[in-house]
Amino acid sequence: MNQDFKNYVSQFQEREKAMPTLFVGHGSPMNGIQDNEFSRGWVDMVKGIDLPSAVLVISAHWLTRGTLVTAMENPKTIHDFGGFPDELFQVQYAAPGSPELAKEIKQEVESIQVHLDHEWGLDHGTWSVVRHMFPEAKIPVLQLSIDYFKPAEYHYKLAQELAKLRKKGVLIIGSGNMIHNLRMLDWQNIDQNVGYDWANELNDTFLKIIEQKDHTKLFNIQNLGEAGKLAIPTPDHYYPLMYTLGLQNNKDEVEIFNNHLLGGSISMTSLRIES
């Protein structure tokens, strides 16, 4: 067991201290097998925390009508991408699931009906990140889907209903990218820490709003002007941020990490929120 994790507590019991919550800019699936500044940043952000009872990920790559949570004993590893080296397709992250926690999530959320899913598994928005954090794959990992037909505020408020899970040792991770426009990506500089002027300015705006805890300004992309339209042509990678921010309480502080833009139009900027 990784010595960075301490004071293991039995599954889903109330704890004295709430778990942190993370938003992770996951970027390319290749980050799942590479030792780079981003994957090292993910590892650093879970060093020293108590061992989670489970990990719940809201990934940009599971879009549904309605809200589902994976409820199988052994979720499969999903390779939901193409055109990458065979090595990436060979990855199997065999973490267990937790039907028990899935049922608890279903009960915890009262505003909507959360459906138990036995088909999905762990897509690359989840395993590419979590396999670096918890390489032994012993901790249960679940995914909560994103109802793509609902607005940002809906996801933010839904996250607030999940906040009690932090006190039960569940590490909740939003996995997407604040700025994500593949059509404008400068492929010649995909590995370079460079951003278009509008992307850099918007990234700074995001961080200012987040540090001021003025989250309502992020509910409507139109409020972000032309840069917002360029940065978020579709909201799939943006909505996971709403879950992380919705879990923040008044005592929580924000730590920024992996604060870089790649290829002009992808932001790897990530957050750790913790009291």
Automatic annotation (TrEMBL):
Enzyme Commission number, as recorded: 1.13.11.-
Positions of the Extradiol ring-cleavage dioxygenase class III enzyme subunit B domain: 37-255
Parts forming coiled coils: none
Enzyme class: oxidoreductase
Cofactor(s) for this UniProt protein: Zn(2+)
InterPro entries: Extradiol_dOase_DODA, Xdiol_dOase_suB
Protein name (database record): 4,5-DOPA dioxygenase extradiol
Source organism (scientific name): Moheibacter stercoris
